[in-house]
Design goal:
By secondary structure, the protein is mainly α. The protein has one domain (4-107). It contains 4 helices and no strands. The protein has helices at residues 4-17, 24-47, 54-82, 95-107. The longest helix is centred in the middle third of the chain and has 29 residues, at 54-82. The protein is elongated and about 65 Å long.
């Protein structure tokens, strides 16, 4: 899981920059849970060789599966937190262009064809 550290660090940083709120302790606990799951996944995968016999591979998969479910269920919180303080994307159109296209859309006018 190559990007877990970056994602969790960004999420924690965003949480730290937010004004205090009661629910932040729950979000911090969820991030801790995700960190623990990532650490356990990494440890389990490093302890078992990829070329192991099928029984060892099955045991490894059984150990990792609940941890992956944890990530699947809670990664949205980490992603949403990490996205909290990103700079807004620059507008693709200038103010005049935006007004022109908005007027054409409201009037139901087709845009001019590009040649």
């Amino acid at each position: 899981m190559p990007h877990t550290e970056t994602l969790l660090a960004s999420a924690r940083g965003a949480l730290d920059r937010m004004p205090p709120a009661r629910h932040h302790a729950g979000w911090a606990a969820r991030l801790d849970c995700l960190q623990h799951a990532a650490d356990q996944i990494q440890q389990t995968l490093s302890e078992t060789a990829s070329g192991s016999d099928s029984e060892a591979a099955h045991d490894r998969d059984q150990a990792v599966w609940p941890l992956l479910v944890t990530w699947a269920e809670h990664t949205g919180t980490a992603c949403d937190l990490a996205d909290q303080h990103r700079a807004p994307a620059a507008a693709a159109l200038s103010g005049d262009e935006l007004r022109e296209w908005t007027e054409m859309a409201r009037a139901g006018v087709r845009p001019p064809r590009l040649v």
